[in-house]
Structure formats: C-alpha cells, structure tokens
Specification:
Layout (H helix, E strand, L loop, with lengths): L19 H20 L2 E4 L7 E3 L5 H20 L6 H27 L7 E4 L1 H20 L5 H16 L7 H8 L1 H33 L3 H16 L2 H18 L13 H24 L4 H9 L4 H31 L12 H10 L2 H32 L5
Antiparallel strand pairs: 1-2, 1-3
C-alpha cells in the first residue's frame, strides 16, 4: 500500500498559532485606546460641592506627546500580543500606555485649571478609569500567557506614576493637590494603616501557627480551629468590631493600666483583634494544607529511617508545602490591608479615616486620596509575596 504524501511546509513560512490570550489582549488594548476619546479624559467641577463634568482635553505640545505615548502603547499591545514570545513586551507596552494616559490627564488638568475659577477642581473622567482597568486586564492576560503574574506592569506603573508625580506633571489633579495640602495627615494615616495591618497579621500568625501544628496530629483540635475560623467569616466586620468594643471597654475599666497600652473600647485594639480573627481561616487552612503536601508514604519512610517528628516537619513537610503556606499568607496579608480601612469606623485610624471623611464631605478627591494608597499597598503586597512564592516554587522543583 503506498504511503500517503505529507505536505512539507517551509520553516520560514510556518508561524506558530497565537496564544489564547492574544485575542483578549488585542481587544482590551483597542477598547482602552477608545475609552478616553468616547467617555472623556478630564472632568472639571467649579468647586467641591458641584458635580464634575467632562471637558475637552487641551491638545498642547506636552499633552500631545503623552497622548501619542498612550496610543503607541495600546498599538504595541495589539501587535506584540500576536506573537507568543512578544507577550512580555506587550506587558511593557501596557505600562507605557498607562504612563502616557496618566501624563496626558495630568498635563491637561493643569492647562484646564489655568482658565477655570480658583475653586475649580480637575479630576480624571470615566474614560480614564475604564482605560486603566482595561490596560490592567490586558497586562494580566499577557502575564497569564507566559504563566506569571503582572509584576512587571505593576512595577513599571508605580515607577512611572511616581516619576510623573515627582516631576510635577500631575499637580493639576485635585487628588494631588489634596495630598499636598494634607501631607502630614496622609503620612500619619499610612503609618497607622501599616501598623494595623501588620499587627493584625502578626497576631493571627501567633495564634494560627502553634494551633495549626498541634491540629496536624489532633483531628478534634483541627475541627474546633476550622469551625472557629469559619465562624468569624460569617460575622460582618462592622458587627465583629462592635462586639469587641464592650468587653475591651470593660477590661479597661477594671484595669485602668490597660489604657496606657492602647487597650480600650474604641481605637486600634478592637480593630486589630477583629482583623486578626478574619485572618485565622486563610492562615490556618494554608498551613495545614501545606504541611500535608508531603505524601504519607514519604512521611512513613522518613519515620522508618529514624527521623523525629520535628525533623520530618523541618526537612520534609515545610520544604514541600512552603508554596501552599505562602499562598495562605499572601491571601491573609492582602485581606489585612483591605480590612484595616474599616478600622476608622471605631477610631482605629489608618487610611480609612480619609475615606470616610471624603464620604461625609462628598469629596471624591479626598476619597481617592485614601483609597489609592490602599489599592497600591494591596497590589504591592500581593505582587511581592507572589514573586516570593514563585521563586521558592521554582527553587524546589525537580532539576534545581
């Protein structure tokens, strides 16, 4: 029987199929490029009390260059995403587009305010926010196509935004002006927010680590621990903070010396305890799941060679399950940064104080001044722990 003929395709004409994420990246980049033109670049309000309305972007020399960088970055995402090896460069193009977009509204806001009343306030319009969201999704798709997190985009976006801010190109935006007027208050709120999130995470670790290690060999303790941790998740955060206020106030009344330690019915104490209670579930479940990654047969073999339970934990369970444990820590850390915003409702301070002040005054720029650092902290914490998790996972993989 004759053999079927195979059609030979020259190697220089054979093109690999574009990755699955290529179409998504191209669509997201194209929509991001259109959003500012359709929904507006800048909104202008005569004062803080009146609602802002979109205004035309002044096309000056600097603004035109920034818009050109934005469009070039979007076009680069479309073209580079069609090649599998171009996904990292497409992610960098997304960062360029973000920097150009931010520079355009910063320069445009300064030009608009030059012809507006003294109390006028310029802020990004809906087109800016939607374009930023689409660029972030596009960068995330590029990173997913290469099996990584969008850490490059986040790092370059933070560096680019900081550089534009340091050069004074964003001084026309109302949120930047608000930050300059409240510089000391913003720094105090940021330090307090970090202290709340870090204190709650540390307290939760002090509880979850020893109880998780004990629960590994005691099923009843594990059931009790997980039931308690899941029970805290059911209670709304505001309600939990309120439930903690009464007993802590009673303790401070019974032992007045506790007030010198900051323990009372309101303030950082109930906020820290409440946040720590919510962090028990991701920490305990991640720890137990990570310690059980090691196969039972491997644990039995190590025990048969005379290794003690402590040696099995340090040399076998922890190295094999460190990636899973860090995943739980990553989730808990991001959750701590977000929940610390609600501490301001019970006098705990933090960036939530600026947020709720802005809500009470109907000041969008003040709300953004409190929200944007929270978002930035969450992204930085997540990206840092994700990079550490990936590095440790790669170091522990076979062949390393």
């Amino acid at each position: 029987m004759p053999r079927p003929l195979a059609l030979a395709v020259p190697e220089d004409r054979a093109r690999p199929a574009p990755p699955r994420e290529a179409l998504a990246v191209a669509i997201l980049a194209a929509l991001a490029a259109l959003c500012p033109f359709l929904l507006g670049w800048i909104s202008l309000a005569p004062n803080r009390l009146l609602s802002p309305r979109p205004v035309a972007l002044p096309m000056q020399a600097g603004t035109g260059i920034a818009v050109a960088c934005f469009l070039a970055g979007c076009l680069g995402m479309v073209l580079l995403s069609r090649r599998g090896r171009g996904l990292p460069w497409a992610e960098l193009s997304a960062a360029l587009a973000f920097a150009g977009l931010l520079g355009a509204i910063g320069l445009g806001a300064g030009a608009v305010l030059g012809e507006a009343p003294r109390m006028a306030r310029a802020m990004p319009a809906a087109g800016f926010w939607l374009a930023v969201l689409l660029l972030a999704l596009g960068a995330g798709s590029c990173a997913a196509g290469r099996g990584a997190t969008p850490s490059r985009f986040l790092a370059l976006a933070v560096v680019g935004g900081g550089l534009l801010l340091a050069l004074g190109l964003l001084d026309g935006l109302s949120v930047v002006r608000e930050g300059q007027a409240r510089g000391e208050e913003l720094r105090t709120a940021l330090v307090g927010h970090l202290a709340l999130a870090g204190g709650a995470l540390g307290l939760a670790l002090l509880v979850a680590l020893p109880l998780g290690l004990l629960a590994l060999r005691q099923p009843r303790l594990e059931m009790a621990l997980m039931t308690l941790a899941n029970g805290f998740q059911v209670v709304p955060s505001i309600a939990l903070f309120g439930l903690l206020m009464a007993p802590l106030a009673s303790l401070a009344t019974t032992w007045p010396a506790l007030r010198s330690w900051g323990i009372g019915g309101i303030g950082a104490a109930p906020a820290t305890l409440g946040i720590a209670a919510y962090l028990l579930l991701p920490l305990a479940s991640g720890l137990l799941a990570g310690l059980r990654v090691a196969p039972p047969a491997l644990v039995d073999a190590a025990r048969g060679q005379g290794m003690t339970p402590w040696q099995i934990l340090l040399r076998l369970r922890l190295p094999l399950g460190l990636g899973v444990i860090l995943g739980g820590l990553r989730l808990a850390a991001v959750q701590a940064v977000g929940l610390a915003t609600l501490a301001a409702l019970i006098g705990g301070g933090g960036l939530g104080r600026l947020v709720f002040q802005g809500i009470g005054q109907l000041a969008t720029d003040l709300i953004l001044l409190g929200v944007m650092p929270v978002v930035a902290l969450s992204l930085l914490v997540d990206a840092g722990l994700a990079a550490l998790q990936a590095r440790l996972g790669a170091a522990g993989s076979p062949g390393r």
